[in-house]
Design goal:
Shape: globular
Number of helices: 15
Number of strands: 0
Order of helices and strands: HHHHHHHHHHHHHHH
Structural class: mainly alpha
Helix content: over 70%
Largest sheet: none
Strand content: under 5%
Oligomer: single chain
């Protein structure tokens, strides 16, 4: 059997060989998430961009549901490979393929058959309802494509191809830019055209990453293995922290949209949409760090190499903090320049003003969220699902609603923005508490 380089290669070189492609891919994923908004904001207007943001939680459900399966599968299969149990790794992967197919088809049907009710539930008013419904309905047809692009791309990190997901992401975003320009800018298809462009972009990315998984000689492939319900249930439970992360993102967007709609109407939602796009771009850099070290952690945990695990974790935490500190400064110094990319002309000045003020408060998140993201990913890679779920839930599901309840009534819109840094700061305390409990055992 070929030597497992994740267990033997010098850590500094291994760290950057896996982290840099993962971070680059996540940066491009961040850009991918704002491409539709850029084209709609400039060619159609702020309301079209706000419609897409209202529909964003449905997109997050596709991503989050896929992540539950994919991340848990990568962790469990990685630990099995590290322990030398190739058969178990193949069974885990085969089970993930079948479950992911079924899950994505259920999400597809929900979006196709219930687009308008979903849009209304997510907060769309009469102005935004049509556009939000169109985006959900069109994107729903591509749910399986999005799901398998994630699985096959992530799989490359376990089969010695850490650059595969990056290649797929470059293909996806390049296709999305071209198709958005054609569909929105040239053909004038609006929100539906933007959703179709995104779906075709993910199809192109899937075709890029799928190749190795259809080769019988690849250690994990679509042919080998048997379905094991117990294995996939455990993997899904372990990966559920990543699903919780995306569910928390969806809930956060939902709650923030409703809060901003109450305080400033469509302008408030548009301002949050812009900041959310930029914030996602920054946060995904940190997720790239966490994703990049995951196969190193899981394989070495399976092999019992604790020192390599601690060195890898420490390097990731330091890098994410420095990254967050730098990006916090960028938000304060060049916030207006970034935000002005999304809207053109004097008609968007009110929205830009709201977003610039909000960015200075929102920017506090970056001083803490890199730590929380790496801690959550660390516990997932080692199979500690409970700790990872607790951290992921704290960042969004638990403390964002508490922050909104505490601060928005006192500080108004500033309080709505403040709820996000509040949630990250409290979650740091949760991470430290978990670490202290583990050390005392």
């Amino acid at each position: 059997m070929k030597e497992n380089g994740l267990l033997t290669e010098p850590l500094p070189r291994l760290f950057w060989r896996y982290v840099l492609p993962a971070m680059a891919a996540m940066v491009l994923d961040g850009i991918q998430g704002i491409v539709d908004g850029l084209f709609l904001g400039n060619y159609v207007g702020a309301e079209a961009m706000a419609s897409v943001n209202i529909a964003n939680p449905y997109f997050q459900v596709i991503i989050g549901g896929s992540m539950i399966i994919c991340t848990g599968t990568m962790s469990a299969a990685g630990r099995a490979l590290g322990a030398g149990d190739g058969k178990r790794a193949k069974d885990i992967y085969h089970s993930a393929l079948l479950v992911l197919l079924g899950l994505s088809l259920v999400i597809l049907l929900a979006g196709v058959l219930g687009a308008a009710p979903l849009a209304r539930f997510l907060g769309a008013n009469e102005v935004l309802l049509e556009g939000s419904g169109q985006y959900i309905h069109t994107l729903a047809f591509f749910a399986p494509v999005i799901a398998f692009k994630i699985l096959f791309g992530f799989s490359g990190r376990l089969v010695g191809k850490p650059q595969l997901y990056l290649a797929g992401t470059i293909t996806t975003i390049s296709t999305n830019v071209i198709m958005d320009y054609v569909a929105v800018g040239v053909l004038g298809l609006g929100v539906r055209g933007a959703a179709f462009a995104t779906g075709l972009a993910y199809l192109a990315g899937l075709l890029m990453v799928a190749g190795p998984m259809f080769r019988a000689e690849t250690v994990l492939n679509v042919y080998d293995g048997q379905f094991r319900a117990g294995e996939i249930l455990y993997a899904a439970f372990n990966g559920s922290s990543e699903g919780v992360t995306y569910a928390a993102t969806a809930l956060t967007v939902f709650l923030m949209n409703r809060s901003f709609m109450a305080y400033a109407g469509e302008s408030g939602v548009a301002a949050f949409t812009i900041i959310n796009y930029v914030g996602n771009f920054v946060t995904l850099l940190m997720f790239g760090m966490s994703d990049g070290i995951s196969p190193i952690l899981s394989n070495n945990y399976g092999a019992g190499n604790r020192e390599r695990i601690q060195k890898t974790l420490r390097a990731a935490l330091i890098c994410n903090f420095l990254l967050g500190l730098a990006l916090f400064g960028i938000f304060w110094i060049w916030g207006r320049n970034l935000i002005s990319l999304f809207l053109d002309g004097d008609q968007g000045e009110h929205v830009i003003g709201l977003a610039v003020r909000g960015a200075k408060i929102y920017g506090l998140c970056f001083l803490a969220n890199g730590f929380n993201i790496v801690q959550s990913g660390y516990h997932t890679a080692l199979g500690d699902a409970v700790s990872s779920i607790l951290i992921a839930a704290s960042r969004g599901i638990v403390f964002v609603p508490i922050g909104l309840a505490l601060f928005s009534r006192i500080l108004g819109m500033d309080g709505v923005w403040l709820s996000l840094p509040f949630a990250e700061a409290v979650t740091v305390g949760v991470c430290l508490w978990i670490g202290r409990i583990k050390k005392s055992r």
